[in-house]
Every structure is written in structure tokens, then in C-alpha cells.
TrEMBL record:
Name of this chain's protein: Nitrate transporter 1.5
Assigned GO CC terms: membrane
Pfam families membership: PTR2
Main localization, broad class: membrane
Membrane topology (UniProt): Multi-pass membrane protein
Length: 600
């Protein structure tokens, strides 16, 4: 009897505990679709798994990407300009696929399922590349290093190579924007402590990304530079497999947001409804426009967005005409005739984000030089310390160390200092837009420094060398300042972008917000490829092989860097105007109670 009473008492205590468990206030759910319990889901436990996953996946990706330009020249037989263009196009495709991943995540699959599927594709691509390199491409054995280029390849081997690297592009591209947003989903922004953790997460996310690439840029990069390409690719594949397993291990602890449906249809509904009512007068008071209560929001519980001025022609989509006010028919009150203010504001939000996004593309042109022309420039410098050879691609380690240092400096020193100088009640100093502007300024300095280093490299070149590799007496360590400046600019630009686009995107488009950051890198790569092609066409003549020839000693890469500095300066002026025009999105407050939970 006593035992029975103890069991009853324990059951009673467990039920009481469950009733008093605090659930998240942001509408997140667990894997079974129930309101997420704060203590048992999300927060830093889930976030750390995601950060480690990101670090390992990045190691795998850059194990291929960082030396791809050298693989194309030494193994696939491309010249420098062709290889730089191929890398730019491939990297651009990676980030174009981020739009596909974001669309599937926001609309249908949710972030967890999207991340899992695209990571699996990523693993398949890496295994395929490893096999094709080992069996077909790195032949004869021992080729692919600095001194021994490989022979020609069959059409099948070449096709296998391109299928493999574009499977890697698809897998990594579809995964990247969603893993960043999924990590942020693990923090309840309406909770004081977790809200602060969400802001910190993006810095740690970018740090994890860079620490992952540190290993690939040094250890894997070193072995690949010596011609052991298959070993490097297998190491990348192994890292990606471990990353996927770790991601799946955290499944019971993750918080989720329910997909909100196809955003393209919502966008089209606003455009169609506003054009239908192009003669309708727009009320001066936004309160007269059509809106539903937050609980009735058709986008799976997303927050309502408050009405803003600007793009007033779109407000017609939310104007309630006398015809719509008189009838209750579904075809008249359908979203193709009448849209909510929140739906209209979603479209306005995207239209406001686009000019900011466009201004970040030229920064990405600067950033992408690190994976192409910086490597080729380094290869044309003195790369030996005594008998030890320094792989040119491994110099990007200084960029990674710079990112790690400046994340700490910004979070611990600059941000609190600026907040005190501004006398702001908020603990945060610079806004995301201000940080992105600082990133552009530092990028300009990086290009000026890179151009200056190239000017002196040419001054100490060997005029009689048949190729440009190792043909200058100027040490490769003179590249350190340009890598450090690029790293510092990333902390301000890319971390600021992640926070800005995630924070300013509507609830149903969070992955799309992160994808905007990725696609700016994508278009930056395509613009870089286009710019190289145009510059080579204009600068080439009978006497001059162009600014970026196969032998850099016969070109003027310094002029190309200075051109980028000028273009980025012009972009910075436009950015200042656009950032001053931008209006921040404002959400309606959430309900204090989450159904099925007791908040304590």
C-alpha cells in the first residue's frame, strides 16, 4: 500500500512538473509538433551541435574549394584566367542553390528536413569526387603537384569530375542558408537570455565556419598542394559524413518552425490584388486596411507586421472595397482579391532589402579574390622558408585567424565601447547596417594593399622564368596584410549581413533572408568572372597579354586590384544613400501564452 502511494505521489509530481514547464514564446515546436519546452529543447546544447556540424561541413567544403583553382590548372590542364573563371562560376553556383534550399525550407520541408537532405547530397558529391580523382583524374600517379602536371583525360572522367563538384555545390548550397537560420531557431528571441544568445550565435556561426576552413586551408591544403589530391578529398568526405551524423544525433533536442507555404504565391497575390484595384483610393490611415488577428494569421502563426509608409501602391491590395465589405463569398475575399497588411508588408520588406543586398555584391567580388587571384599571386612569390614549401592556398589561414580575432575584439571591446559613447540604453553599439558599411571601407583598404604588394612583386620578378610560379624574390608573407584586412571586413560585413537579413526578413521567409547573404556571394563570383573576362579583353594587345595572363610576370594584376578598390569606393557611396533610406520592419507583439504551456 505504501509503495502504491509512493507511485501515485511520483506520478502526481511529474504531472505537476509538466504543467509548470515553461515553453518558448516564439511559436517554435518540438519534433512532434507540440509547443517546445524551454528546458528540454533548443538553446546552447542544440546550437553547439549545429556549430560543430557547420565547422566540419565547412572543412569538407573548403577541402575542395580552397585548392580548386590549383586542381584545375595542374590536373585538369586549364590556364590561370580560365581556372579563375571556373572557380568563380562554381562558387557562384553553390550560392545560387542556396535560394532553392531556402525556398523548399520556408515553403514545404522546414529547415531540419532541408538540412538533412542537402547534407546527404553533399556527402554523395564528395565521395564521387574522391573516387573519380583516385581512379581517373590524378594519372599518371604522382602528378598534380607544382612540378608535374597531369595528362589529358577522357570525356567520361571529365564529366564525372564536373558532376561531382556540382553535386557538392547543390548539397552545400541548399544546406548553408538553412543551417544558419536553424541554429538561430534554437533561441527564443522573446526571452531576455536566449535573445542575447541568438545575437551571439551568428558571430559564433561565422567563427565555426572559419575554424573549419582553417584545417582544410592548412593540413588538407598542404597535402593537396603536394599532389595527394585523392587523400585530401577523402578527408573532406569523412568530415562531411561525421557532420551529418552529429546533426542527426541532435534530432530530439531541436526546435522547429512550421513552414508557412509558398512565398511566391503570396507575393503574386499582393501584386495581382493591387493591380485589380489600381483605381481605388488609398486611405490615409493604415488602420483602415484589412488585417486579421495574429492567431488567425494564415502563415502558420507568423507574427503580424505593422503597416509602414512607402510603396503605397501596394497598399491597395489591403483596401476593403464596398463590394468586399458587403459579401462573404470566398472568391471575393480570396487573397487574389484582398490581402492582409502583413502580406503586403512582406512584399514591401523584400523590396526594401533588395537595394541593400545589391550593394553587398561588389564586396563579394573583393572577397572572392581570396580563393582565386590571391592564390595565383602567392604562387608567383617566394614560397619557401629554407626547404619548407608554403602552399599559396594556406595563406588564407591568416584570414581565418583575423576573423577569429576580430570577432572577439568586436564583441568584447568595440561593441561595448561604441554603446557607451552613444550612451545607448541598448547593450549593442553599431547597427547591422553601420557594420556592413565599415566592412566595405576595410575591403577598399584590402584591395589597395593587395595592389601595392603586387606592384612590388613585379619589381622583384625574374624576367627569364618560363612560368610565374616562385618567380619573384618577394616573400609570400607580404600577402598577410591583405588577408588580415579581408578577415576583418568579413566580421563587419558577413556577420552583419547574417544578423540583418535574418532579423529583417518576415517570419515566413527567414531562410530566404539567410539565402540573400549567400546569393550576394554568388553574384559576386559571377561579377568577378565577368570582370576578369572584360578586363582581359580590353587590356590585351599584341605587346601586352592582358592584366591577368598565365604568366603574371607579364601582366599587371596590381591594376586589377586598384580597379576593384575604385569600384568598391563607388559602391560604398551608393550604399550610404540606400542605408539612410531603409526603413526597419516592425512586428506586432506575440501573445504571452502559448497554447498547452504554462509560462512561469
Amino acid at each position: 500500500m505504501a509503495c502504491l502511494n509512493m507511485v501515485k505521489m511520483r506520478n502526481f509530481e511529474e504531472k505537476t512538473l509538466k504543467k509548470n514547464e515553461e515553453c518558448t514564446q516564439d511559436g517554435s515546436v518540438d519534433r512532434k509538433g507540440r509547443p517546445a519546452v524551454r528546458e528540454r529543447t533548443g538553446s546552447w546544447f542544440a546550437a553547439i551541435l549545429i556549430l560543430v556540424n557547420q565547422g566540419l561541413a565547412t572543412l569538407a567544403f573548403f577541402g575542395v574549394g580552397v585548392n580548386l583553382v590549383l586542381f584545375l590548372t595542374r590536373v585538369m590542364g586549364q590556364d590561370n584566367a580560365e581556372a579563375a573563371n571556373s572557380v568563380s562560376k562554381w562558387t557562384g553556383t553553390v550560392y545560387i542553390f542556396s535560394l532553392l534550399g531556402a525556398f523548399l525550407s520556408d515553403s514545404y520541408w522546414g529547415r531540419y528536413k532541408t538540412c538533412a537532405i542537402f547534407q546527404a547530397i553533399f556527402v554523395v558529391g564528395l565521395i564521387s569526387l574522391s573516387l573519380s580523382s583516385y581512379i581517373f583524374l590524378v594519372k599518371p600517379e604522382g602528378c598534380g603537384n607544382e612540378k608535374t602536371p597531369c595528362g589529358t583525360h577522357s570525356g567520361f572522367a571529365t564529366a564525372m569530375f564536373y558532376v561531382s563538384i556540382y553535386l557538392i555545390a547543390l548539397g552545400n548550397g541548399g544546406y548553408q542558408p538553412n543551417i544558419a537560420t536553424f541554429g538561430a531557431d534554437q533561441f527564443d528571441e522573446d526571452h531576455p537570455e536566449e535573445g542575447h544568445g541568438k545575437v551571439s550565435f551568428f558571430s559564433y556561426f561565422y567563427l565555426a565556419l572559419n575554424l573549419g576552413s582553417l584545417f582544410s586551408n592548412t593540413i588538407i591544403g598542404y597535402f593537396e598542394d603536394r599532389g595527394t589530391w585523392a587523400l585530401g578529398f577523402w578527408a573532406s568526405a569523412g568530415s562531411a559524413i561525421v557532420a551529418l551524423i552529429l546533426f542527426l544525433v541532435g534530432t530530439p533536442r531541436y526546435r522547429h518552425f512550421v513552414p508557412s507555404g509558398n512565398p511566391l504565391s503570396r507575393f503574386c497575390q499582393v501584386m495581382v490584388a493591387s493591380f485589380r484595384k489600381w483605381k481605388v483610393a488609398i486611405p490615409s490611415n493604415g488602420d483602415e486596411l484589412y488585417e486579421v488577428d495574429g492567431k488567425e494569421n494564415p502563415n502558420n502563426g507568423s507574427r503580424n507586421i505593422l503597416h509602414t509608409q512607402g510603396f503605397k501602391f501596394l497598399d491597395r491590395a489591403a483596401v476593403i472595397t464596398s463590394k468586399e465589405n458587403s459579401f462573404e463569398k470566398e472568391d471575393i475575399k480570396s487573397p487574389w482579391h484582398l490581402c492582409t497588411v502583413t502580406q503586403v508588408e512582406e512584399v514591401k520588406c523584400i523590396l526594401r532589402l533588395l537595394p541593400i543586398w545589391l550593394c553587398t555584391i561588389l564586396y563579394s567580388v573583393v572577397f572572392t579574390q581570396m580563393a582565386s587571384l590571391f592564390v595565383e599571386q602567392g604562387a608567383a612569390m617566394k614560397t619557401n622558408i629554407s626547404s619548407f614549401h608554403i602552399p599559396p592556398a594556406s595563406m588564407s589561414s591568416f584570414d581565418i585567424l583575423s576573423v577569429a580575432a576580430f570577432i572577439f575584439i568586436y564583441r568584447r571591446v568595440l561593441d561595448p565601447l561604441v554603446a557607451r559613447l552613444k550612451k545607448s540604453p541598448s547593450p549593442r553599439g553599431l547597427t547591422e547596417l553601420q557594420r556592413m558599411g565599415v566592412g566595405l571601407v576595410i575591403a577598399i583598404l584590402a584591395m589597395i594593399v593587395a595592389g601595392t604588394v603586387e606592384h612590388f612583386r613585379l619589381k622583384y620578378k625574374d624576367n627569364d622564368c618560363p612560368t610565374c610560379e616562385g618567380s619573384s624574390t618577394l616573400s609570400i608573407f607580404w600577402q598577410v596584410p591583405q588577408y588580415v584586412l579581408i578577415g576583418a571586413s568579413e566580421v563587419f560585413m558577413y556577420v552583419g549581413q547574417l544578423e540583418f537579413f535574418n532579423g529583417q526578413a518576415p517570419d515566413g521567409l527567414k531562410s530566404f533572408g539567410s539565402a540573400l547573404c549567400m546569393t550576394s556571394i554568388s553574384l559576386g563570383n559571377y561579377v568577378s568572372s565577368l570582370l576578369v573576362t572584360i578586363v582581359m579583353k580590353i587590356s590585351s594587345s599584341e605587346r601586352m597579354p592582358g592584366w591577368i595572363p598565365g604568366n603574371l610576370n607579364k601582366g599587371h594584376l596590381d591594376n586589377f586590384y586598384f580597379l576593384l578598390a575604385i569600384l568598391t569606393s563607388a559602391d560604398f557611396v551608393v550604399y550610404l544613400l540606400v542605408a539612410n533610406w531603409y526603413k526597419y520592419i516592425k512586428f506586432e507583439g506575440r501573445n504571452d501564452k502559448v497554447e498547452g504551456c504554462q509560462h512561469v
